[in-house]
Design goal:
By secondary structure, the chain is of the alpha/beta class. It contains 13 helices and twelve strands. The chain has two domains: about 130 residues, Response regulator (Rossmann fold, 3-Layer(aba) Sandwich); about 180 residues, 3-Layer(aba) Sandwich (Rossmann fold), CATH 3.40.50.300. Helix 1 links the parallel strand 1 and strand 2. Helix 2 packs parallel to helix 3 and helix 10 crosses helix 12. The chain starts with 5 loop residues before the first strand and ends with a helix. The mean pLDDT is about 85.
């Protein structure tokens, strides 16, 4: 059974306070109402709360001061400020102090419910994102990899050193050797670990679709482009883009990717204005790119841009002790 969300209401207008209490209680929230801000502050320090809804203009301790006090104890709690005298300056001040939302009097019960639901949902999503980041970072912390073979431990020691260097890395090896796991380990042990790790298989998409997926497109760029769309390079801004099976990149895409690696900018399809992003490129291949360069199937200048650092993974038949780990 899901526990009720605990909401603290604070408003010196007793009638309004009781109305809000009734509305929220009738909709499944566990509500405690206060008409004196000092009592609310004391109760907040003594208990656990999921949301604070407080008036701004109150005698004694006003809502902004109460906001500061609750944020000192629980920086993550969402706070909705209620006022009949909202000004731009007041709103900015409240938001800078950590308020999540502003609710202007008079308001309908539906408006209160909508704001409360949004605030709690936002907090839940933020908590889920934090937990996911911690799980991913923990999963790929080298200290947490237990029971690895000596060969894998040596490899991870090298990967750990490479992770902190903000350079392009080419990971080579046969299919199934764990190239994407190594790419994730590089990302989640790098200064970019709080940002996104975005992966794409370059061999799984036709050239036209791959280009639009990577670089995005402007509305009207081609038939069916009914709206402007960001590509994966923009999605990964600040983080890492992993290009799996990079040897399958078409020549047209190779040219655009090379320009990005040289200038840190690119053009969406159909857009004359360059887009600048900060992305680390990790790539992987199970093919011999040096041979592809000699045969004219892969650009030599792009190869050297991608292969600033190389990590080669031996085939699993030579690393039988690592198979259970890579399959986990």
């Amino acid at each position: 059974m899901t526990s009720k969300k605990r909401v603290m209401l604070v408003d010196n207008e007793e009638g309004l306070c009781r109305m809000m209490e009734a509305v929220l209680s009738d909709n499944g929230y566990a509500v405690t109402a206060f008409t004196r801000s000092f009592e609310a502050a004391e109760s907040f320090q003594a208990g656990q709360w999921d949301l604070l809804v407080t008036d701004i203009k109150m005698p004694g301790m006003d809502g902004l001061e109460l906001l500061q006090k609750v944020k000192q104890k629980d920086p993550a709690i969402p706070v909705i400020m209620v006022t009949a005298y909202a000004t731009v300056e007041m709103s900015i001040q409240a938001l800078r102090k950590g308020a999540y939302d502003m609710l202007t009097k008079p308001f309908e019960p539906e408006e209160l419910l909508y704001r409360v639901k949004n605030a709690l949902q936002h907090t839940r999503l933020m908590e889920e994102n934090r937990e996911l980041r911690e799980e991913l970072v923990g999963r790929f912390q080298f200290d947490n990899i237990i029971g690895a073979s000596s060969s894998l431990k040596e490899l991870l020691e090298r990967v750990e050193k490479i992770a902190v260097r903000d350079t392009s890395v080419l990971i080579t090896g046969e299919s199934g050797t764990g190239k994407e796991l190594i790419a994730q380990a590089v990302h989640y042990n790098s200064p970019r670990k709080e940002k996104k790790f975005v992966a794409i298989n370059c061999g799984a998409l036709p050239a036209s679709i791959l280009e639009s997926e990577l670089f995005g497109y402007r509305k009207g760029a081609f038939t069916g482009a009914t709206e402007t769309r960001r590509g994966l390079l923009e999605t990964a801004d600040g983080g890492t883009l992993f290009l799996d099976e990079v040897g399958n990149l078409p020549m047209t895409v190779q040219k655009t990717l090379l320009r990005f690696l040289q200038e840190q900018e690119f053009n969406r399809l159909g857009d004359p204005t360059p887009t600048k992003v900060d992305v680390r490129i990790l790539s992987a291949t199970n093919s011999d790119l040096k041979s592809a360069v000699k045969e004219g199937e892969f650009r030599e200048d792009l190869f050297y841009r991608l292969n600033v650092v190389n990590i080669h993974l031996p085939p699993l038949r030579e690393r039988k002790d690592d198979i259970p780990l890579l399959a986990a």
